[in-house]
Amino acid sequence: MLRRCIYPMLWLYILSNSGPLAAHADDKPADTLVIIDVVDWLSPAHQATHQASVLQKILANLTIPHQIQQITRNRARMLVREHPTACMPWLLKTPERLQDFQFSVPYMAENALQLVVRDNTPLAQTLHQQRQAGPVRLGELLLQRRPPILGIETNRSYGQKTDQLLSELQHLPAIYTRTSSSNNPAELIPMLQRGFLDIIIEYEIVAKEHSNELAFFPFEETEAFQLSHFACSNTEDMARLLPALNQSIQMLGQDEEFQQLMLLSIPEHFKQQALQYLREAQQKP
Length: 285
Description:
Blueprint (H helix, E strand, L loop, with lengths): L1 H15 L3 H5 L8 E4 L13 H11 L5 E4 L3 H10 L3 E6 L9 E3 L4 E4 L2 E5 L3 H12 L4 H5 L7 E4 L6 H9 L6 E4 L10 H5 L5 E4 L1 H4 L6 E4 L7 E9 L2 H17 L3 H7 L8 H13 L2
Parallel strand pairs: 1-2, 1-3, 7-8, 7-9
Antiparallel strand pairs: 3-11, 4-11, 5-11, 6-9, 6-10
């Protein structure tokens, strides 16, 4: 009985503090797709990025009405769970998230996540030496007698391989977990720069937007590429709109110019492999 009372009250509180989406949620017809821009790709600060350009082209190609809302990540996840036709872009598809969301086909490939450390530090030198002998293993780093401090974010997936490793090692004091509090996709970089953390896991193209004094290291416990999806409301109304979103993505995917844009973060010699990886994933249910 207590849970039945608390959750409606919590939802009413969130709606009352969530801006335009909350104010007009009941007025939106069920054929309007609401895009929750949780990383602010469509804000003036990020509109020049390739992630924003890909998103803009997909939305421009939609055959259904859509609206864009910018809400912090923590609120956005609850809103998408409760709203009938809302989607968040730039999320990885995981078994855990499939319990709460429907997913579009993947619309963009990012290069593998990297271990990021401050450049010109003893740790960076050590990792450079390790890389010459073979792939860097994050698990071995964290299990050392005096391990470096790794920073990760709650509610963020780092890909299935890395998520599995972090779950197995979550008891280690060397792993610092921070609750995401903003839409900044690289929220841990200031803590890394100030020396509160020794390592973070991030996309190289994202981290370089914030600092040019970082070193990047591929590591063994991650996928070769990460695929970005729209995570959408798990409702019948959304199930009716999802084919239109998928159609927009797949039609654009046949265009060579769009292919180059959605693979922009991939090194040139891996682009064809990444495109094949993306196309195969788009054919999976």
